[in-house]
Amino acid sequence: MSEQYHAIYEELGMDVALHEQMVQSIHEGFERCVLSQTGRPEGMAYFDSLVEAAHGSRVQEVLDHKAAGGAFIGTFCIYVPDEVAWALGVLPLALCGGTGFTVPYAEARMPRDICPLIKSTLGMAFSGCCPFGGIKDMAVGETTCDAKKKTWDVMAAWGINFHVMEVPQTKGERTAALWAAEVEEFRTRLEELSGRKLQADALTDAVRVMNRKRRALAELHAFRAEERPPISGTDVLVVTQGALVDDPERFSEHLEALNEELAERVTQGISPVAEGARRIMVGGSPAVMGNWKLHHLIETSGGVVVADESCTGTRYFEHLVPEIEDDVDAQLAAIADRYLQIDCACFSPNAERMENVVRLAQHYHVEGAIQYILQYCHGYNVEAINVAATLDEIGVPSLTIETDYSEEDAGQLRTRIEAFMEMAPAVR
Ligand code: BJ8
Q: What is the pTM of this model?
């Protein structure tokens, strides 16, 4: 598996044996939830390989990037504007953990009642299983939820080089100005880190690279509106998770090829989705790499996930950044505007999210929505009440599921999902 990188892991001071066990446990979940599917597109082979690459070849690429004089930052949220980093030769990588394997290592040092995404991420670092922790030049946090922002304080107190972006909690002129200032400060921090000055042409190029990736993802997700989608929701999740860790240009190339294959499949009427499968929208907390649990349960209980209203779904790729030439300030302002359109549950009120939920439910012809709440994720959990009421108004039933990264509740969840599927009215 990751044996060829053992020398690197040892040099990074990792616990090589434990890391191997973690990789093995992720792989077992991947086999059970993803590779067990039938009728998958051939183009998925590349995206499958990203799961292994995330703990192998991608580490080598980051090291090569640093050896060539570039800097490397770890991020934890899709509000961090990657374009600014790329334009300064800084490689950004999402370090969010999706495996339950490392959760106990975080629980030994942090409160247990914080969300599994944070515990998995921290547990990777605490257990010596994170190859990126030791090579990052800086971590970039944000103030999206209480657990995260207090965690950054603890990390900073432990001597980790942290930059925290203040994500506002309301949307309006005053907070838009605050956010624009945060993006500007991010630029300054990265200029210091990289020893470079942000150049207009480099920034426009980085915007184009990211826009290309967003367009390709939008095209992929658009296939899900088909009556019988040419790809499963689990596979779309695998691709979208990969977008957070892969090199953006290489990722776009492979995704554009997959999209061509999917277009061909539509023409030929090829679909891995059983006729009559219930069309389900999943919304709420993100499901990052390592976490395929809910999609697998839905798609092996008579449903197909046709929309992901989450940061590992539409929230990640919707809205392009206008490509502005020769004007760094205008380009930065356009970037700030684009990122502030993300409708995370950290915003109150969150009318924009309610509008988006309705738009997505209608566009993808969903028959039911499952709100996916990571345990202790209060923002999405409480907001689920308004989301359910909004969906109810347009006749879409919803089910709210609160869960963690363990498999212990899988049987119980399956029973609830199957019962929900039976009551969801067919729109066809
Ligand atoms: S923009 S969803 S990526 S913050 S799941 S750590 S919110 S308690 S990940 Fe998120 Fe950015 Fe929002 Fe998206 Fe907290 Fe909830 Fe845990 Fe979360």
A: 0.97
